[in-house]
Write a structure and sequence with these properties.
The complex is a heterodimer.
Chain A: E1 7-13, H1 25-40, E2 49-52, H2 67-74, E3 80-83, H3 91-100, E4 106-114, H4 120-127, H5 139-154, H6 159-173, H7 188-193, E5 196-199, E6 201-202, E7 211-220, H8 221-224, E8 232-240, H9 257-269, E9 278-280, H10 286-296, H11 304-308, H12 326-329, H13 336-347, E10 366-373, E11 378-385
Chain B: H1 16-23, E1 28-32, E2 38-39, E3 54-58, E4 62-71, E5 85-92, E6 97-101, E7 115-122, E8 128-134
Antiparallel strand pairs in B: 1-2, 1-3, 4-5, 4-7, 5-6, 7-8
Classes of the chains: A alpha/beta, B mainly beta.
């Protein structure tokens, strides 16, 4: 495919994040979008493509945030619009496809949710799995726990591996004032002593639920050169969707979609994992990070603990992972948490947590990102460069 | 355990035959007439060969635990009194995997690949849930 380096991320929109009662999901989308447009140095009428991340069931007193509702409130009328209603992780590919086809010139990609303060997550848990509910099975945490338990049966893994991920990412969050866990450190003992949620997972294996939003803008490399931020080029991108749910899946212990998606992304970029300076990995649960890195080829099945120990992914480590704190310790904005962090790192805008001399890590030229959905049913690998 | 609070299976045109079978304590699955693949969830076409013709078979109700988890949090009030409880995926000898609960077994004795057999919990006159317990004889 001839799209290597042809498209770039040019703006990121943040919002206040954490537990912020009294705000709607739509409001977070809007704030993130407005901030992304300003960050890119664009005007709202430049935006002719709009893609929203998955719709959760809205809070019971809110309307569903559709792209046209969002467009209406932004006062724009895009030529291209898309929203995923499930959990697929094709947004950047759709953005590139729409740009490459000439459907539009600037795609705004948005996520917003009041997950921490509204009843939306409860509605998702109790209303979206009717086949499983009679057996008391609800939601993604338990779904990933089923995958993780089987993995523990097939190769050496478990809490002794995962605690390096939880603790390592927390150290990054402690450098990020935006992170929910900025002021809360975590030791291995804290991890071990945390209450079990759905075994084998305990509290610190699970991502946060967050009120807030995140947005980014993608355009062509030519247009990116004239904008205010240094462009972050999409070097390679690949998607693979094993699709089978955890009940029928055999891929949940690897290879997951990450293996094929990763190969496609690396082939497009023309590089290997030896060229990767850092990773921003979709980390809904600690195990997700392990299996994704394993499937990308950083270590062999069951060798994650050895690879992770001695601070590999931490500040000062040889392969920094999830440098904002990630979904586990920064905030949950689906794939926009890892991808926006990669873009910010490559733009050099990360202050205390900036990769390079400041954190005794390699100055990043190339960052590998992942986005992953449902119970390991859908995966995108994205390689970004300065 | 307060069964009144627990969600019931949602019956639709695809899964009605399965749940009718459960009412008679039978695990029924569609077997493809062409390639013999036994499928679950219920579906109009065979996901292996796309053949639409099938026969219903009754499973022997034996299999092994593919994976399991232990809930320490009740995400629904109907399960509060059951904590801690086990949700498992059981792979039947005929091939399909069912999400289920493990009954009649201490939690710390449950393991992946453990042989199990079906046992039934009659929720009401219309609904019986297939649960699994350690296999008495393999």
């Amino acid at each position: 495919m001839g799209i290597k380096d042809k498209y770039a991320i040019v703006g990121i929109g943040y919002t206040p994040q954490g537990r912020l009662p009294g705000r709607t999901a739509l409001g977070f989308h809007l704030e993130a979008c407005a901030n992304a447009i300003a960050d890119a140095g664009l005007k709202k009428n430049d935006i002719d493509g709009l893609i929203c991340y998955r719709v959760f069931p809205p809070a019971s007193n809110e309307a569903l945030v559709t792209p046209y509702l969002l467009a209406q409130h932004l006062g724009i009328a895009p030529d291209y619009m898309y929203e995923d209603a499930n959990c697929s992780r094709s947004h950047l590919q759709n953005a590139i496809g729409a740009l490459d086809a000439g459907f539009c010139n600037y795609v705004l990609l948005s996520y917003g949710h009041n997950a921490a303060s509204s009843d939306s997550m409860t509605r998702m848990l109790t209303e979206m799995s009717p086949d499983d509910a009679p057996f008391g099975h609800f939601g993604a945490l338990a779904g990933y726990a089923l995958a993780a338990r089987r993995a523990m049966h097939e190769f050496p893994t478990g809490p002794e591996t995962w605690k390096h991920i939880a603790v390592g990412q927390r150290k990054w969050a402690n450098l990020n004032p935006r992170a929910t866990m900025f002021k809360r450190s975590m030791t291995f003992d804290d991890y071990d002593n945390a209450p079990p949620l759905v075994e084998p997972f305990r509290l610190f294996d699970a991502c946060l639920t967050t009120d807030g939003g995140r947005a980014m803008i993608i355009t062509s490399a030519e247009r990116a050169h004239n904008l205010k931020n240094p462009p972050v080029y999409i070097m390679g991108i690949g998607q693979h969707n094993p699709s089978y749910d955890i009940k029928q899946a055999t891929h949940a212990t690897g290879p997951t979609g990450a293996q094929k998606a990763g190969k496609r992304a690396f082939n497009m970029a023309g590089i290997s994992i030896a060229d990767v300076d850092a990773c921003e990995i979709y980390d809904c649960f600690t195990y997700t990070v392990e299996i994704t890195l394993q499937d990308y080829g950083f270590f062999k099945p069951g060798e994650g603990k050895e690879w992770l120990q001695d601070g590999t992914i931490e500040p000062g480590g040889r392969m920094p992972v999830n440098t904002s704190g990630g979904l586990l310790s920064e905030a949950y904005f689906m794939g926009l948490t890892p991808i926006s962090e990669a873009a910010m790192q490559l733009m050099g805008r990360c202050e205390e947590r900036q990769l390079g001399p400041r954190t005794k890590t390699k100055s990043p030229e190339i960052i590998l990102c992942s986005d992953n959905g449902a119970i390991l049913q859908t995966h995108s690998a994205i390689i970004l460069r300065r | 355990m307060d069964d009144d609070l627990k969600p019931l299976p949602v019956i639709n045109d695809d899964n009605r035959d399965f749940w009718n079978g459960c009412r008679n304590h039978e695990l029924r699955f569609q077997k493809c007439e062409q390639c013999g693949h036994v499928r679950w969830p219920a579906s109009l076409i065979c996901p292996v060969c796309f053949c639409r013709a099938f026969n219903w078979i009754v499973s022997e109700g034996r299999g092994r635990i593919y994976t399991f988890v232990v809930y320490h949090v009740a995400y629904h009030p109907g399960f509060q009194d059951d904590l801690p409880y086990v949700v498992a995926v059981v792979e039947l000898t005929e091939g399909p995997r069912l999400l289920t609960n493990i009954a009649e077994c201490p939690i710390d004795e449950i393991s992946c690949d453990m042989p199990v057999e079906v046992t039934w919990r009659d929720v009401n006159k219309e609904i019986s849930l297939p649960l699994f317990r350690p296999a008495v004889s393999v």
